[in-house]
Amino acid sequence: MKKTVFSLALATFGLGMAEFGIMGVLTELANNVGISIPSAGHMISAYAFGVVIGAPIMALVSNRFSLKNTLLFLVALCLVGNAIFTVSSSYTMLIIARLISGFPHGAIFGVGAIILSKIAPPGKVTMAVAGMIAGMTVANLVGIPLGTWIGHAFSWRYTFLLISVFFALVIVSVIVWVPSLFDTSESRLSEQFHFLKKPEPWLIFAATMFGNAGVFAWFSYVKPFMVNVSGFSESAMTLIMMLMGLGMVLGNMFSGRLSVKFSPLRIAAVTELLIMLAMLALFVAGESKVGALSLGFVCCAGLFALSAPLQIMLLQNAKGGEMLGAAGGQMAFNLGNAVGAWFGGLIIAFGFTYSYLTLPAAVLTFAAMTSLLIYGHRKTKHQPEQVVQH
């Protein structure tokens, strides 16, 4: 199982590099291709749009093949999308390449979670999924700073060439280390949507979207916040981003450890509460360098402490449509990115200082926590024995 988890972690590391690596080389890309910075920013949106349209499509067609073959196809699609992006010179081709790159993102998480739910011992599924998600957190800590440095020192194209080569290595690891399993659910296409008739999955989708939006309302503007509010120099931002990345790694690891003692719901709800309190504290203590770093660290740790518990809750509440449920979680996650950045931008557009970014962040996080509490109330009311088990 450890080799399978490691192979899936390599896949999510590549996804983290592909999704967030563009942010560190945006200026170089714009200058090289001859487009504006806002136009280059569309590459971030195109990837997220690829995730949103690709996740349900891949989830619906993938049960015809073994989980291993589906995973191989998805990783190969990542390789192709990033390779096309590496050699593209026109705005249109760059956008198409980013769409292709994002297309398999959600489904990879979905397939990986289902594989681990089949091979992990009872009570260890959340920890195994946290191990898979660890790849993305390590990408934030190590991979993205490395990709940014390569883009600055040589060319943004070398950054994405490296990502393409890495996905080739992931394909080899999947062939060698991932067992050949099938999603045994025989449900027809229409039956895969039946779980969506219940409110529970929608409450988890809402918690995922609002929770992610809460952190990204602030984190999307972390550089101007740290420079203008906390008084850091621009040169300190690389180390600050590595610290935030370390928070993501440790938050995910800690969440996995806690899953042995506590239910995914309890871990997620308490984490949302901690993020909300940290955001409110940031509004007060943001001008303190120590306060800004420590509270920002808590928020970033919380962001990835939520990932595994929410993914497991979706699998538990998507019987007959597990792939669609897990992929839907990734759609909600990416939608949260966009919603959070939009709310943060709105605050700045209205002329407020960067300190005020933390207030909509706290409100969005409160909405996520409320969704989880309503979910927990419904579960306790209708299925008390299931709560006791978990």
TrEMBL record:
Keywords: Cell membrane, Membrane, Transmembrane, Transmembrane helix
One family name in Pfam for this protein: MFS_1
InterPro entries (UniProt xref): MFS, MFS_dom, MFS_Efflux_Transporters, MFS_trans_sf
Transmembrane segments: 44-63, 70-89, 95-116, 128-150, 156-182, 202-221, 236-255, 267-285, 291-310, 331-350, 356-375
Membrane topology field: Multi-pass membrane protein
Subcellular locations according to the entry: Cell membrane
Major facilitator superfamily (MFS) profile domain span: 4-379
SUPFAM superfamilies (alphabetical): MFS general substrate transporter
PANTHER family in UniProt: PURINE EFFLUX PUMP PBUE, TRANSPORTER ARAJ-RELATED
Name of the molecule in the record: MFS transporter AraJ
Source species: Kosakonia pseudosacchari
